Amino acid sequence: MADGSLTAKRQEIALLRRLEERILWLASWTIHNANHLRESRDGLKVGGHQASCASMTTLMTALYMKALRPQDRVAVKPHASPVFHAIQHLFGRQSLDKLKAFRALGGAQSYPSRTKDVDDVDFSTGSVGLGVAVTAFASLAQDYLAARGSVKPESMGRMISLLGDAELDEGNIYEALIEACKHDLGNTWWIVDYNRQSLDATTKDRMFTRYGEIFEAAGWTVETLKWSKRQREAFERPGGAALKAWIETAPNDLYSALTYQGGAAWRERLTADLAGDADALALIATYKDVDLGELMTELGGHCLETILEAFERASRDDAPRFFIAYTVKGLRLPFQGHKDNHAGLMNPTQIAELRERLGVVEGEEWDALSGLSSAERTALKGLVARAPFAVANDRNYTAATVATPSADELLLAIAAKGEGGGEQSTQAAFGKVMFDIAARKDEFAGRVVTTSPDVTVSTNLGGFVNRRGVFHRRAHEDVFKRRRIPSAQVWSMGETGQHVELGIAENNLFIALAALGLTAPLFGERLFPVGTLYDPFIARGLDALNYACYQDARFLLVATPSGLTLAPEGGAHQSIGSPLIGMSQPGLDSYEPAFADETAVLMAHAFDRIQAADGCSTYLRLSTRTIAQPERADDAWKAGVVEGAYWLKPPAPDARLAVVYSGALAPEALEAHEALLEDEPGAGLLAVTSADVLHRDWTAAGRSRWTDGAKRTSTVERLLADLPRDAGLVTLVDGAPATLSWLGSVHGHRLRALGLETFGQSGDLPDLYSKYRLDAEAVLDACADLLA
Prior knowledge:
Layout: H1 3-37, H2 50-67, E1 73-75, H3 81-90, H4 96-100, H5 130-147, E2 159-164, H6 171-182, E3 188-194, H7 210-217, E4 221-225, H8 229-235, H9 240-249, H10 252-261, H11 263-273, H12 278-285, H13 289-297, H14 304-314, E5 321-326, H15 348-358, H16 374-386, H17 407-414, E6 423-424, H18 426-439, H19 443-447, E7 448-453, H20 462-468, E8 470-471, H21 479-482, E9 493-494, E10 499-502, H22 506-516, H23 519-523, E11 528-533, H24 542-550, E12 556-559, H25 578-584, E13 588-591, H26 596-611, E14 617-621, E15 627-628, H27 636-643, E16 645-649, E17 657-662, H28 666-676, E18 684-688, H29 691-707, H30 715-720, E19 728-733, H31 738-741, H32 744-747, E20 750-754, H33 765-771, H34 776-787
Parallel strand pairs: 1-2, 2-3, 3-5, 4-5, 7-10, 7-11, 8-9, 11-12, 12-14, 13-14, 17-18, 17-19, 19-20
Antiparallel strand pairs: 6-15, 16-18
Helix pairs in contact: 1-2, 1-3, 1-15, 1-16, 2-3, 2-14, 5-6, 5-22, 11-13, 17-18, 17-26, 18-20, 18-26, 22-24, 25-29, 28-34
Organism: Caulobacter zeae
Family: Belongs to the transketolase family.
Protein name: Pyruvate dehydrogenase E1 component
C-alpha cells in the first residue's frame, strides 16, 4: 500500500475512533437523562443498559459508518437500542426530542421497533433470539423475490443481526439455523457481541469454541474477532506468546473481575502467574497501569481495524457469515467487566467523569460533537455524510396495490359440492379455494406464497403446491415421478415454486410469516403469505407470532383441525385456549367459520386486509368436520360473517332464548335450536364467526362514547338488541367457554356458557360431545336452567 493511502487509512481510523467515542457518549447520556434528570412521576427505574451499549459501540460504528449499504437490513441487539438511536441521530433520522424522551411516551423506544420508532428500524427486536432468526427468513424472502426478478442482483442486500452472546442460549436461533441450512441461504451476517456475560452472571468457559463449530457444521463461514491490532502487535514481541496463552486459558469470571479492577490488578495477577518467564515480565513492565489495562481489554470486537478488515472480507461473496466478536461488557465505563453490570447505571459523578474524559463541554451534553475543534467537527460530519448507508432516502417502501379476488369469485371454488344442501368442512373449503387460486393467471395468484411446518398435505395445501410447486434456490428432481411411482403429491421444486416447506418447528413458521409479510416495506414487493399449522400447536410459536404482529407483518394464518373435534387424536392434540389467543393478540383478526361459504368470504376479506392501510393479519380456526351447508336466501349474511356475527335464525320480538354458537359445533346448535322451537317458537340462533372482531368493536364503541362523545352502536349491541333484556343466552364453542361468555355483559342478558375446560381424550364425536357437554342435549339443559 502506498504511503499516502496508508496515511489516509490511519486518519480515517482515527476519525472513526473519535466518532465512536461520541456515539458511546450520546447513548450513555440518553440513558442517564432518562434515569437521573428527567422527572419521574411513578418512581420506577427507567433503565437502558449502558454496559450492553458500550460493548456494541465499536461494532455498530464500523457497520453503520463503513460497511452497511442502503439495501442491507439490520436487526439490532435489543439492549443496544440507545447506540442505534444515537447513530440514527447522526444521520439526521432521529430527533433530539425523541432521544430526550427515551423510554417515555412518544420517545425513542427501549428496543428498536418498526411500528413505534420514527427512525430507520428494519426489524423490531426485544424478545431475545427472534430478531436473529428473522434475518435468516428475510434472506429467504429476498431470494424468493430475486428468483422472480423483483429484486435485482445489484440490489441484493445483506440481512444482518447484531446479537448478544447470551441470546445464543435461545433455541429458536438453532431452529432457524437448521432451516437456513436446508434452504441454502446466503447474504446473512450474524454478529455476536461475545462479552461472555449474561443478565445474571458470566457465561461458561466451555462454550468458547462450540458456537463456531455449530455454525461451521451448518455451512456458515465463521469469523472469530478475538484479538485487536494492538494485542497482535504485543504478541509478536518477546514474551507475547506467554501473555496470549494466559488470556486464552483464563476463566471468564477471572478475566471479567480483573477487567473491573483495572491495570494495577492486571499487573499483580500477571506478574504472579508469569513469574518464571522473564520475557513476559519484561513485556508487562513496558506498559503503565492504564495502558496495560487497555491492552488486556481491547479485544477484537473493540478494534476498528480488525472489524473493518473482517467486514471487507465478508463482502466479497454472499456466503452466510457468523462473526464472533470478543468484547468487554461495559468497556470504558466504571463498571466494565463487573458481573452485575447488566442493568447498571452510572451515577451523576461517574457520568461527569466520562464527560470530562471525552472532552464534552458541560451544558452541551446533547451535542454529540461538543468540545471538538472546528476542523474535527467538519471532518466527523464529512465521515458521516460519506457513509454508504447515509445516501439512502426512505428505505421503507410502499408497494403497489394488487387486485385481489372478490368473495363471489372465491365462493365459486367451493360451489362444486353445493353452497346449500351439500356437506363440507371448513378445512376442505380452504383447500378448494387455494386450489382455485393456484389455477388463476392473474398477478394476485403469482404473489401468493404458502408455507407450513411439515403439515402441508394434512392442512389441505397439497392441491395448491401440486399446481404451483415448492420454492428452492436449486431445482430438485421428483424421483417418484421420474420412476413412475403413483403419488397424489406432484411437487416440482425450484426457483419458480410458490410454497416454502418448513421442518416441524412452529416458531419458524411464524418467523417466516413475519419476513414474508414484511416484503412490501422491506423490498417494495407485496406478497400474500398463507401459513398453515395444526391449531393445537399454535401455542408452540406464540412468542414468534406476537413478534410478527408487533412488526405489522401481514399474512393469513390457517390453523386446522381444531378443538375436541379432533376426536380420535385425543387430548394431547386438542386445542382449548386458541380462540382466546386469537382474541388477545393485537394485529391479528381471529375468525372461526362454521360453513364453507363463510370460509371463502373470510379468505377474500383476509387478502384485502393484508394490503389495506389500516389492515392486519388474519387467523382462521378451521375444522375437518364435514357438516351440512345452509341454504342462503340472500347475500345479507356475508357482511355479518366479516363483522363477526349474524342471525342464522332471527329471534321473535318476544323471544325468551337465543342459542349462540361458533365454528364446528353448528350442527349441535342447529339441532338444539330446532328442538327448542317446540316450546320456544321465538328462539333465535346467532352464528358468531369472530368473537375477536365482535369484542374489539364493542369495546371500541364504548371507548368512543367515553373519550370523544361519539355515539356509535357496535355490531354485537345491534344484534343482541333484537332480544328482550330478560331473555337468556346459551353459548357453545369448541374451546374455552370464556370465548363467548362476555356476551351477557353487552345488554345484561343472563347467560350459560358451554365449552371446554378440561383435557379431552380419544373417542368419536357423539361420545366426546356427550361426555364434555358440547351436544344438543347440553344446550337444551342450559336453556332449561335459564328458564327455570
